[in-house]
Amino acid sequence: MKFVLICWLALCLPWALQGKEYHASLFGVKSDGITLNSRSIQKAVDFIQEKGGGTLVFSVGRYLTGSIRLKSNVMIELREGAVLVGASSPYDYISVGGVRALIVAEGEQNVGVFGKGVIDGQGKGLVASLTTQIQKGYLPEAISQASPALVAMKGCKSVTVTGLHLQDAAGSALSFTDCSQVALTDLWIKNQAVPNMRGLVQSNCVDLVATRVMNDLVASGKKP
Amino acid sequence: MKNTLIVLFSVIFGFSLTAKDFTVSDFGAKNDGFTINTSTIQKAIDFVHEQGGGRLIFETGSYVTGSIYLKSNVTLHLEQGATILGSTNPFDYIKDAKIGWMSMIFAVNQENIGITGKGTINGRGFLTAYNMVNYIHRGIYTDPLKYDRPNETNRPQNIYFRECKNIRIVDITLRDPGSWNQTYDQCQNLYVDHIYVDSKSYWNNDGIDIVDCDGVVIKNSYFDAADDVICFKSHSAEHMCQNVVVDNCVGRSSANGLKFGTVSRGGFKNFKITNLTIFDTFRSAITLAAVDGGEIENIVIDGVRSINTGNVIYLRLGDRWAKGKKPYMKNVTISNVYAEVPLTKPDAGYNYEGPVEDLPRNISPASIVGLVENKIQGVHLKNIQIVYPGEGNPLYAKRGLSAEELDGVPEMRDAYPEFSQFKELPAWAFYVRHAEGVSFENVTFTAKKKDYRPSVVLDDVKDVSFTGLVVHEPESVGKQQVFSHKTSQLIIK
Amino acid sequence: MTKNLLIVLFLTLFTGLTTYAEDYKASLFGIKSNGTTLNTTSIQKAIDYIHEKGGGRLVFYVGRYLTGNIQLKSNVTIHLEEGAILLGSTNIYDYNLAERFPSLISATKADHIALTGKGVIDGQGRDVAYQVSDQVQKGILKDALVNDRSALWRPKAIYFRECTNVDITGIVIKNAAEWVLVCDQCTYLKIDRITVDSKAFWNNDGIDIVDCQHVIISNSFIDSSDDAICFKSHDPTKMCDDVEVRNCVARSSASGIKFGTVTSGGYKNFKIINNKVYDTHRSAITIATPDGGVVENILVDSLYAYNVGNAIYLRIGARWNKGRVGSMSNIRIQNMYCEIAEGKADAGREYEGPIEDLPRNISPASIVGLPGQYISDVTLRNIHLVYPGNSNPAYAFRGLLPAELDSIPEMPAAYPEFSQFKELPAWGLYVRHAKNLTLENITFTAKLKEYRPALVFDDVLGGRLTGLRYEEPVKKKKQVHFYKTKDIIQTK
């Protein structure tokens, strides 16, 4: 059986117009779900930016990673079956504007994440680990501040997040501060790892348009 | 020398008292051998540092990490069975901007730091280096791939400490770095005791590198290295390695055993090296070289066993990157040496064995070679016994004793200093050129088979004495075993 | 005459026995057990030597034997004693890349070959796969990198082609870079008591039987990231015929027992008896003929499935059929118990099945032909299917109006898998384009309430429904919906 054919469809997306495509494996990114890929993915983003921009493409697989800092003119495409899996240690995350997140960007433009894939925060494990670290006094913040979101951007312009399944963040799924021209389209946010976490948090954004964003925030964590 | 020891003792006893213990797994580090713990371990170090210091304990298990920075008053303590495993992804390593090298464990401008315990640091450098080669081939990382390998600064070392004070490296095992193994650069008061080093996973795997440090003790340690074993360097003309004690160490290398250089800008002073054993080593058991303007002074080497080693002693002044600075070497004492030199390649069969030379050359003698205008001054050799294979065959390679032939030995002032650089030399046991004040006392040279050359050749040497010289060579009754050329004040008792 | 025949028989038997009894130790040929010496040529020499001597066993004792591709020859058995590991080289160029299917152990047109013993064949496939990907990225090996991975070069662990009398017994086969054990156009194939661990990389099927005749697979355990026990037909002039699968346990991040995907010739005369499937992402059993193959006379008896994404999926498609018309008839599935997973049945595995672009509620067992191409004579008997229920129409919805049922795509050219239609209108069984369907003594259980009926028939011509029971925590509900369906006889 091949997973191949499902993803042929994804190839036909108009997003191919976003510039040159780079496969994740070019940068040695591993799809096995156990290799922490943070630095390789970061290297990929930096490399693509230096080359004038383009799209970093993840095909079907599980890609474990900590925070990635997205740079101008770099898009991340998660094809169907590709899962960006959040690392379980809170120390693998960095923050912008006081919000930790798996994908962060600050002051960048023309950035985005799209495709039919998944960003999975593994929030339950992450929150458990955050809680112990805070209890032991190693982390000074309150848990509400420390919990990473899936995507957090500050001061960015021309941002797209499209087509994805966003699930199980430790914090909110999406967080935008001081951003402009933000297009959120066809998103399915299933932020059920932690009760009462929000799907989208925005402050002071200009021209933020959310279209067909399904927010599924059941507090009990039980499937509908 | 005495001052050094007092300072060192205070280092040893000084900060073991204040330690409070923290466990790295408490911070969420995983010992499963595949989770990359870089950020977690860094967080733990920062936390212990902020709490005023203590030991960060690694319990049994394998902790994978990329680059981390050790901070003041923090000791990494690896319990027996604990291994810090280097990530095999080169992108997990930082090339420190100030240092210009990659490393797994960095420390810059810190004090009272250490790595202790019976655990292991394993860089897995072979895999990391090969992954790096792949990235270079694909154009993701830029490197000229000289010799078809990444530059040594683009491969991680296990440890690189720079400008740190009061360092303790005790009991640990250090394995498989991607480049040099452990470097201490412009540090003060370094204490290394009981470490085990297995450093032959990739090119340039040195055992230990001491660069421009002041106050160093290395003792009771074992080194097996693809490149130099115990290596003192001087990268800065304003600094030097000084006040150093090396005691009771054993080493194996596909380069040199004990080495001063190659980069030798500042110099090396006040060394006491005792009870050193070197075996299966490709180049020299002892190489003291100053080719970049460095100063070498007050070196005492006492008690050396050198078994199956390509060369025993090589002292060299050169003029490579000196930029006008005048190098010198004086007051070197080497005593109580027993050495056996083999006919064949001593490190054959090791994965990264030393390069097979473009021969011909018969087995090379121990050598002391200065510069015409800059002689090596004051070398005292006492109680030396060296066993050579002999068999020097003039049909294979020949350097005769006529004035023209002796003057024809190239000076090679700006070449990389190694015992084989001149190819064939005219002696089979000892060759001295451009030196002043050299004494041989109670020295025995043995050739197992007949050699066409005399045992000792002196060229441009002033004030040289032999007391109790014994030469054994088969079928050589009446052969002149000491030959001198342009030499004055020669005394043979 | 009879006497002569007896003598001939006796002689064949005798020589056969003696040749098989001859053992050769690996060390005899300088084969090293240190795990770092590459033994390819020594092992090949050993095989050739034993083959020329008329046959025998090449015996590996405890140790690690690194090797590249080796080719098995007639009358040679590779026997791996307990503790012996045949390790695949991690260098792709140590494999037979000139062949269409590179592999660690290959055999072509050999007779009486065997892999036996309690040892291990370990392909070290993840490292090989990453090296392949690296070589492709550098442009040294040419490949399309479909889904960012090589489709052409990754070696299988075992590939036997056109061999006869193949015996694979007792060993552990694991970690190929691709499919693990493939027998292609072989006859008289016996696989018994083996363990297949095939989770090292993508497309890692367990056992692939391609166009083989007279096959018995028994008493084996298969854990794979792609299909576990998989029958294929690559050649339109060939088919899998006379196959028995008995007492096997399978786990997969795709389907447990699968017919397809490539189905050029077809499958007939299968007995799949007393097997278990668990923690499996897709179907416990999938029988698909998307490429014009013929499927007939399949018996599935005593299949137990726990925590699987789907129970049964029968499908005719029209993908690469090149004018051939696929057909499926005379399928009997009986004495089956199946629990369908609420979440993702293989979650947390390293190469778990792809997370779909949802939404879809839990899918029913499905029998789906094409318009005019009916799946015929399917009998389901003595079956209990347990579903989690709890579908949510606000999440995904497919109603029962003619327009809604007609809007279910036919997808003839699509890759056949149970979830391909996304939301289906039934929770227990969905049948479309079938005829002469028999359902007998079947219990459908939904643990929580469903918005859909249990059964939806669409374009079913002729059927007999007997003893159907529906267990759902709801009082009164019409559990059967017929559309464009006729000649159905229902009895209690």
- The percent range for strand residues of chain B is over 45%
Main sheet specs of chain B = 5 strands, parallel, barrel
Using the coordinates above, name the CATH class of chain C: Mainly Beta
Main pleated-sheet profile of chain C = 5 strands, parallel, barrel
Inertia-based shape of chain C? elongated
- How would you classify the quaternary structure? heterotrimer
Number of domains of chain B: 2
Strand content of chain C: over 45%
- Number of separate strands of chain C: 32
- Write down the overall mean pLDDT of chain B: 93
**Count of runs of 4 or more consecutive helical residues of chain B:** 4
Decide which structural class fits the backbone of chain B: mainly beta
Shape of chain B: elongated
Number of strands of chain B: 32
What CATH architecture of chain C do you see?
3 Solenoid
SSE order and pairing:
The complex is a heterotrimer of chains A (224), B (493) and C (492).
Chain A: H1 4-11, E1 21-23, H2 38-50, E2 54-58, E3 61-65, E4 68-69, E5 74-78, E6 82-86, E7 94-96, E8 99-106, E9 109-114, E10 118-120, H3 123-135, H4 143-146, E11 149-154, E12 157-162, E13 165-167, E14 174-177, E15 180-190, E16 200-203, E17 206-215
Parallel strand pairs in A: 1-2, 2-5, 3-6, 4-8, 5-9, 6-10, 8-11, 9-12, 10-13, 11-14, 12-15, 13-15, 14-16, 15-17
Antiparallel strand pairs in A: 7-8
Chain B: H1 2-14, E1 21-23, E2 32-36, H2 38-50, E3 54-58, E4 61-65, E5 68-69, E6 74-78, E7 82-86, E8 94-95, E9 102-108, E10 111-116, E11 120-122, H3 125-137, E12 156-162, E13 165-170, E14 173-175, E15 182-185, E16 188-193, E17 196-199, E18 208-211, E19 214-219, E20 222-225, E21 230-234, E22 241-253, E23 258-264, E24 267-290, E25 295-317, E26 328-340, E27 366-369, E28 376-388, H4 403-407, E29 430-447, E30 456-472, E31 482-485, E32 488-492
Chain C: H1 2-21, E1 23-25, E2 34-38, H2 40-52, E3 56-60, E4 63-67, E5 70-71, E6 76-80, E7 84-88, E8 103-108, E9 111-117, E10 120-122, H3 125-137, E11 156-161, E12 164-169, E13 172-174, E14 181-184, E15 187-192, E16 195-198, E17 207-210, E18 213-218, E19 221-224, E20 229-233, E21 240-246, E22 249-252, E23 257-263, E24 266-289, E25 294-316, E26 327-340, E27 365-368, E28 375-387, H4 402-406, E29 429-446, E30 455-471, E31 480-483, E32 486-491
Parallel strand pairs in C: 1-3, 2-4, 3-6, 4-7, 5-8, 6-9, 7-10, 8-11, 9-12, 10-13, 11-14, 12-15, 13-16, 14-17, 15-18, 16-19, 17-20, 18-21, 19-22, 20-23, 21-24, 22-24, 23-24, 24-25, 25-26, 25-27, 26-28, 27-29, 28-29, 29-30, 30-31, 30-32
